[in-house]
Amino acid sequence: MSTDDVVRRRQERLREELRDAGVRLDLDRTTSRQTLDEISYARFPRRHEGKLSTYGAFVVADDVDVHGLGGVVIDGGGLAVDTLRLMADGRRSYLVVGENRTDLVVFPTAYERETDIVHLLDGARSAKAADSGMVVVQRLTDGFVRILGLDGLVIWDGTRWRNKPYARAFVTQILRAVPGSPRPTLEAILAFCVHDIGPAPTGTILVWDLGPIDAFSHSAVRSLVGQTDAATLRDR
Q1: Which strands form 145-148's sheet, in the order they lie side by side?
Q2: Which of 108, 151, 166, 196 is the most buried (most CB within 10 A)?
Q3: Is residue 232 part of a domain?
């Protein structure tokens, strides 16, 4: 069996696995083969000296200009994709791959955390890159795989695939439940909870009073919080 046959069979199995898991990822785009390639590469890593390397790739259509993302785009120069992958650490450097392109983009600062990539994609939407179906694939230090697409995140946690909505998906629901909530503040707090605190290995509870200010009860709440480990009360 040739190497191409092995890759094709692995892609077919991965496609069915993702569909069986109910993953919300469009695998019918023109770049679906490249998307599956990058997910497969991230999911089945090689160990070097007993360690897993991090990895990152942007899968985009050939006509999408990624210069607007804020990094320096380096022409692949005909290098094999496997060679370029070794340079893409999923932090400051990412492979840029499409049907007929393999380049490298290097950023002046790290884009490693979930919140960093979400902000990057928000910027890409302004540049029309994300709206064209841009997909980000990352392999993390623990071997987890994170995929960020148009409709949300998909995460491989070592045992199963799961979907995770973007923070903005919850904004409308909360505004409907609590009319008059300040939208900019709500968006900021949700982004913090979903994309900063959410991926952390520790649990956190954040209670935010969306109703009218009731300063009368603040002293009692402050007394309670002051005697609870790692709890903080922030006055408005």
Answers
A1: 72-74, 101-106, 93-98, 55-59, 135-139, 145-148, 153-156, 161-164
A2: 166
A3: no
β-sheet bridge partners, residue 166 = none
Same domain, residue pair 105 and 188: no
In this structure, are 102 and 189 located in the same domain?
no
Residue 204 lies in a domain: yes
In a domain, 234, yes or no: no
Q: How many domains does the chain have?
A: 2
> CB-based contacts of 81: which residues, under 8 Å, 6+ apart?
95, 97, 102
Residue 115: φ, ψ to 5°: -65, -35
State mean pLDDT over 61-81.
Answer: 88
Name residue 157's amino acid: D
Give the residue carrying structure tokens 């370029």.
Answer: 84
pLDDT tens-digit map of 152-184: 999 999 899 999 999 989 998 889 988 888 888
Given 120, 147, 164, the domain boundary residue is: 164
Residue 90 shares a structural domain with residue 202: no
Q: How far apart are CA 204 and CA 225, in angstroms?
A: 14
Structure tokens at 9: 């069979």
Q: Which two tokens stand for residue 107?
A: 């950023």
Residue with tokens 């692949």: 76
